[in-house]
Automatic annotation (TrEMBL):
Identification of the protein by name: SDR family NAD(P)-dependent oxidoreductase
Organism of this sequence: Amycolatopsis dendrobii
Coiled coil: none
A Pfam entry, by short name: adh_short
InterPro entries: NAD(P)-bd_dom_sf (IPR036291), SDR_fam (IPR002347)
Amino acid sequence: MTTRPTAVVLGVGPGLGMSMARRFAGEGYNVALVSRTAERHPAYLAELDNAEAFAGDVRNGIGATLDKITERFGVIDVAYYGPAAIEPDSMPTDITDATAEAVEKAMSWVYPAVEVVGKLLPGMLERGSGGFLFAGGLSAVRPMPALGALAVSSAALRNYARTLHEGLAGTGVYAGSLIIGGLVERGDIHRMVVSQREKYGDAGGHTLDPDAIAGVAWKMFSAGDSAESVFDAL
C-alpha cells in the first residue's frame, strides 16, 4: 500500500504506453504496467521509479490482474486503456470484405474496456475522483475503408468513451478518448513500417510524438473537461 496515487497502463508498449507511464510517474503517480507478456518488462521498469509490471491479456479477463495491482498499491486512481487492436504484421481487410466474424473479433478489444470500467468505477465514484483514458483510431471519426472491421470497433470504443464522459458529469470521475491518426513514434507498428520502406513507403510527415500525446492526455485528465482529443498526422 502507498499514499501515492496509482495509474494503470493497460497494453503498455515502447511507444504511447511508455510515454503515458513516464508522464504519470513524473506527476507523482505509482505506475502499474500491464502487457500480454513479461518479456519487455525489465527494460520498461528500468526507466521508471515507483513502478511494477504485470502480465495480463485484456481479452482473457483482466479483473484478476487489476486485483493484484490493487493489492500492491491500494486503490487505482486512473486507468489508461491502450492495447493494440491489431498485430503489427496483421493488417485488416477492406470494409467491403469485412465479415461478421471479423467485426466480432475486432470488437473483442472493446468489451474489455467496459470490463475495466465496471471493475474500477464503483470505487472511483465512492471516492469522488479518478478517471479513464481510452486510446482509439482515427477511423472512429473519419471514414477509412481500408481499416475494415477495425473502423467499426474504433467507432464503438469512441462512442463508449464519449457517452461515459457525459454520464460521469458532476461525479468527479473523468473519462476521455485519444483519437490517434498516424504512426506513433517508437511504437511497434512505426518500427515495422520504417524498417520496410519498400513495402510501406516513406512514413515522413505521418508520425506522432507519443510524449506530446501523453502531455495532452495528462491535461485532459487533470482538467477533467474535454471529452476527446484528435491527433491527425494523416
